[in-house]
Amino acid sequence: AQSVTQLDSQVPVFEEAPVELRCNYSSSVSVYLFWYVQYPNQGLQLLLKYLSGSTLVKGINGFEAEFNKSQTSFHLRKPSVHISDTAEYFCAVSDAGTASKLTFGTGTRLQVTL
Amino acid sequence: DGGITQSPKYLFRKEGQNVTLSCEQNLNHDAMYWYRQDPGQGLRLIYYSQIVNDFQKGDIAEGYSVSREKKESFPLTVTSAQKNPTAFYLCASRAPGAITDTQYFGPGTRLTVL
Fold first, then answer.
1. How far apart are alpha carbons B108 and B11 in whole angstroms?
2. In B27-91, which residue ranges form alpha helices assigned H by DSSP?
3. What is the 3-state secondary structure (H, E, C) of A64-89?
4. How big is the A-B interface in CB pairs under 8 Å?
């Protein structure tokens, strides 16, 4: 069975500051990793994903994440946040072999203020 | 425009009533999923279907039922047996493939039991 841990339930940050949202996973097999963003009362939008290849993945809205297999982590970063980045961010993992089901973390609320 | 639609956006139900949530996709995806989202708990898988006329229980299937008679449609029925149905329900479909594997989400339906 797989699991995902997002240790920070909330991350407050000032506009134009850098941010890192942490994600650690547990799995006995190779994995695919995803970050999704959710704005209030909306569905989830894919930010970026790691399936294979380069461990540094770039996504939409200036976000990037790095897959670290030895530390079983997939932290999300942005060098300079904007007010519009305020949202809930979810990390998710699936088994690369079957890839049929996603296991989600509990989410991190990013609050950007002036 | 290709995408996933869910209807209605808001749904109110009296205790003891069954209710059906609609999910339609025109992305030609074989696999579809239903998740439940509660505050602070991330997304939990209710049911999923990898092909027409076939579906499997997820982690929290009790009190729910689904059907998959058409590739485009995957309706979810919340039955009166579901003890605490008030939640945000999200439908997703999946694009398979070694470099494309991704679940795409609909806008969600918020169900409130009165």
1. 11
2. none
3. EEEEECCCCEEEEEECCCCHHHCEEE
4. 59
DSSP B73: B
Instruction: Report how far residue B34's alpha carbon sits from residue B94's, in angstroms, rounded to the nearest whole number.
Output: 12
DSSP character at residue B50: E
Question: Would you say how long chain A is, in residues?
Answer: 114
Average pLDDT over residues B20-27: 96
pLDDT one-digit tens code per residue, A30-74: 889 999 999 988 899 999 999 888 999 999 999 999 999 999 999
CB contact under 8 A, B102 and A104: no
pLDDT in tens, B75-107: 999 998 888 999 999 999 998 776 677 899 999
Say if strands A73-78 and A19-21 run parallel, antiparallel, or are unpaired. Answer: antiparallel
Q: Which residues from B are below 8 Å from A46, CB to CB?
A: 102, 104
pLDDT tier at B53, thresholds 50, 70, 90:
very high
Give the whole-angstrom CA distance, residue A10 versus residue A83: 15
